[in-house]
Amino acid sequence: MKEIGLDELKKIQMDVMASVHRFCIKYNLRYSLACGSMLGAARHKGYIPWDDDIDIYLLREDYNKMIHLFPDLWEGRYKFCTLERNSKWHAPFGKVCDTRTILVEGKHVFGINIDVFPIDKVPEDEAEWRKYDIYRRKCFNLLSRRLLEISFSRTSGQPLGKFLAGTAVRLFLHMFPLHFCLKRFQKVAMKYDKTDSGRVFECAQGIFQKHSFPKVLFDNRIMMPFEDREFMCFADYDSYLTNGFGNWRKLPPKEKQVSHHDFKAWWKDEAK
Predict the structure, then answer these.
(1) CA nearest 203: which of 147, 132, 124, 144?
(2) What's the pLDDT score for residue 12?
(3) Assigned domain for 139 exists
(4) pLDDT above 70: residue 109
(5) Pick the residue with more confidence: 120 or 270?
(6) What is residue 154's DSSP assignment?
(7) Quick check: is 155 in a domain?
(8) What percent of the chain has pLDDT above 70?
(9) Residue closest to 74 by CA, chosen among 121, 17, 126
(10) Which of 85, 129, 148, 227 fits a 20 to 30 Å CA distance from 18?
């Protein structure tokens, strides 16, 4: 198989994103670039120079519509991988993958992709929100431990008690199938979706934003340049990015200008 370099990988991601954009426009699904991708659009008019992925948000109702509407192969090559469509899926969010490619990240294998995060309603009351967010983060932490392989190797300097406790937790969590754990966490994420709350959050992961944000952001979106294309972003991207990054216009120190991903990608033989 022919290995895919970073520049070619980004070009394939851009094609995936352009296809998802066309799909969302066709079916009136409200999406926005998210996380580092929105920061890249606002500050760099494309990828953050040291970034290597694309993230988008969809309101849970539109995320569910996308699950039901997305064909097995969109435009002949793109597959939407989610917990609802694949019982062996490993995350509480989805990925749209290019089926002509293979991408290996840790123990997971799929195609070159973009991340699709569902956005859920959360309490408007500040005290109730904080209580819920603490509970949700604890649940996410447990899920993260379930995703880890069981290791009986103690790291240098790790206290024995902490090592034993962590190993015991992972052993207990591995008694339950991953799909069961993911579905349980999904219920936590969707707890307030049937309310009329005007506040939302990335409950399916939620390690980026510091606080919930107004649902109305999805009703006021604009097209913004991203490399040689344009994609949807919140018109009020400043408040969103400030919530996540603080002074988002300022570049981080050089030592933090690194990718958070470790993967390799190849073309499938038949795709040559």
Answers:
(1) 132
(2) 98
(3) no
(4) yes
(5) 120
(6) P
(7) no
(8) 88
(9) 17
(10) 85
